[in-house]
């Protein structure tokens, strides 16, 4: 450790998505390569000396207590935990707004690191079409969703996480230093052999959320008689800002669902569902909130950008006079 393959792999994965902006401190991390990246992990992030870095990924993340704030993070998986390296502005955003401080004027940028130890990991929920996953710990402070928006990145991280957890499961707990009379006889089984206790006694439950998420989604699609989902993808809706600099636009996270007859845009809650065990009441908003929807038969043309990634698509519809689908819904159900 580290092997040449690992060094090459984390160097290739240490790339910030070009369409998302990060702080200066995270840009510094993205500029590290090979051995410098491993040394940075051990010198600034790792909590244990014999901890090994196994995987690196850049992803947007959501925290359970701030479900509407999506922030960019460098996700580092080690043999001891999952680290989320964030820019310091995310944690101190409220302080900068409430106090007359020089947060924005400061030329010194910090990064904060949130860690979820593997021994505290209780469940991993993978979203539809592997577009995102949620890892859950023992409290509301330990629930994080990674919006990878890419099935390959999700699959790779889950495979690496399973491999690390399997190493923990095979590691026996150390023998107690001071043995008493009861410990000499308490660790024996009926065959006379010693029982090998596992340090990782509470294995995480991996769930692919097909059945957890489909009921509410099917409820929406039943209204439009479109049960066959052809495509589910986490995308961004581009909103051009009027009166600003040229080529300035804001990206609004949306869930795009394509059926055989309609194209829908949803505002989806990626962090609250399925409900954690300690939740005492349902979330304030539903899992899916319809933002827009159009009939495929009204689609006039699709414009594609020339860049490879991220790919920009523009859907042009010819139903300008009938944009309100909810108004048409009452006509379909109750007649004219």
UniProtKB/TrEMBL annotation:
GO molecular function, one term: kinesin binding
Keyword line: Cytoplasm
Stretches assigned to the Nischarin C-terminal PH domain: 229-335
Principal location listed in the UniProt entry: cytoplasm
Boundaries of every PLEKHM2 PH domain copy: 107-173
GO terms, biological process: Golgi organization; lysosome localization; regulation of protein localization
Top-level taxon in the UniProt lineage: Eukaryota
Compartment list: Cytoplasm
GO cellular component: endosome membrane
PANTHER family (alphabetical): PLECKSTRIN HOMOLOGY DOMAIN-CONTAINING FAMILY M MEMBER 2
Protein's name in the database: NISCH protein
Organism: Probosciger aterrimus (Palm cockatoo)
């Amino acid at each position: 450790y580290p092997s040449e393959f690992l060094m090459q792999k984390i160097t290739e994965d240490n790339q910030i998505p070009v369409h998302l902006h990060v702080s200066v401190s995270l840009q510094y991390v993205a500029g590290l390569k090979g051995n410098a990246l491993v040394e940075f992990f051990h010198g600034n992030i790792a909590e244990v000396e014999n901890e090994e870095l196994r995987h690196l990924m850049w992803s947007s993340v959501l925290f359970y207590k701030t479900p509407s704030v999506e922030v960019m993070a460098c996700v580092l998986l080690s043999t001891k935990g999952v680290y989320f390296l964030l820019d310091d502005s995310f944690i101190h955003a409220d302080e900068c707004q409430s106090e007359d401080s020089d947060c924005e004027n400061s030329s010194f940028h910090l990064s904060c690191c949130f860690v979820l130890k593997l021994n505290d990991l209780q469940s991993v929920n993978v979203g539809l079409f592997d577009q995102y996953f949620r890892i859950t710990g023992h409290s509301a402070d330990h629930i994080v969703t990674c919006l990878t928006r890419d099935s390959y990145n999700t699959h790779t991280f889950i495979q690496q996480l399973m491999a690390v957890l399997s190493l923990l499961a095979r590691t026996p707990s150390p023998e107690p230093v001071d043995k008493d009379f009861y410990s000499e006889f308490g660790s024996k089984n009926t065959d006379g052999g010693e029982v090998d206790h596992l340090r990782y006694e509470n294995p995480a439950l991996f769930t692919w959320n097909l059945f957890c998420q489909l009921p509410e989604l099917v409820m929406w699609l039943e209204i439009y008689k479109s049960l066959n989902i052809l495509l589910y993808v986490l995308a961004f809706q581009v909103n051009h800002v009027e009166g600003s600099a040229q080529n300035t636009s804001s990206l609004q996270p949306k869930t795009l669902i394509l059926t055989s007859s309609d194209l829908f845009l949803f505002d989806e809650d990626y962090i609250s569902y399925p409900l954690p065990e300690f939740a005492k009441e349902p979330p304030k908003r539903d899992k899916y909130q319809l933002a827009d929807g159009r009939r495929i038969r009204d689609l006039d043309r699709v414009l594609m950008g020339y860049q490879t990634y991220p790919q920009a698509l523009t859907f042009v519809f010819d139903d300008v006079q009938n944009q309100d689908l909810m108004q048409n819904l009452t006509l379909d159900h109750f007649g004219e």
